[in-house]
Amino acid sequence: MNQIRQNATSRAAERDAVPWPRPERLALFLDLDGTLAPIAPHPAAVGPTPDRTALLRRLHGHLQGRMAILSGRALSEIDRICGGVRLPAAGVHGLQRRDACEHVIETFPAPGLKPVTAVLEAYAALHPGVLVEVKPGALALHVRQAQARAEEAAAMAAELAKAYGLELQAGDQVFELKTPGANKGAALAAFMAEAPFEGGVPVMIGDDLTDEHAFEAAQRLGGFGVLVGDRQPSAARHGLADVDAVMTALAGLADRLERV
Ligand SMILES: O=P(O)(O)OC[C@H]1O[C@H](O[C@H]2O[C@H](CO)[C@@H](O)[C@H](O)[C@H]2O)[C@H](O)[C@@H](O)[C@@H]1O
Fold first, then answer.
1. Which residues line ligand 1 (CB under 6 A)?
2. Where are the coiled-coil regions (predicted)?
3. Does 229 lie in the same domain as 158?
């Protein structure tokens, strides 16, 4: 029993130790919901916190700008939750991308989104708890407050995606219908091809299915992914238990960067 307990403890310790690349090479990519911010009942219930904002500001400075947020949220939402620190970022799973010079590249929204918005809003109006989030180039059908509808909502989202030429991205209690052609992996690769990220070692920290694209891209480009939580399978080579463990690991990294 003690042995089992000891093994579990050492596994947890291994999981919580991120082997950061050398500070001058590290290019850090961070997911938002479920990674930097705990999951909340509703997207609007997530807001900035002074600690998170201060930590992001510190890291961005110490990494000489080689840090970006990769999120399913719109850029405006990323900025709101980051407390107004305007970081390089990919929004809506890469459909929007703001580079280190604050230049924003946005994919033109698919025409199918308009009719699909009407269908989903009519569905949400009939079913309390179902929420439709309209984003630039995508729609999110949230079922966190109506989990009994999850299967039905997944089937409907899949059917609508096929009928209207949209891409389906499943996430944590959400089914997203997106303009095709973007994902977090492509966004990470685009950042890595330009200053100040170029030549760095990419590390992506994320929790959800959409982060898998970025884990794969980070690995392909010489770095690795860090999975938050224990969802499996995952392309991430390292792990952190939860948002608190992420904040602790990032604070430790900031301290280390300060000493360099
Ligand atoms: O890529 P991320 O930054 O992790 O964004 C993914 C989606 O996050 C938001 O939805 C999720 O978080 C909400 C707040 O905790 C939660 O209520 C919801 O159930 C989750 O799916 C956001 O609303 C989506 O637009 C993002 O795509």
1. 31-34, 39-43, 46, 71-73, 133, 140, 142, 144, 171-174, 176, 208, 210
2. none
3. no
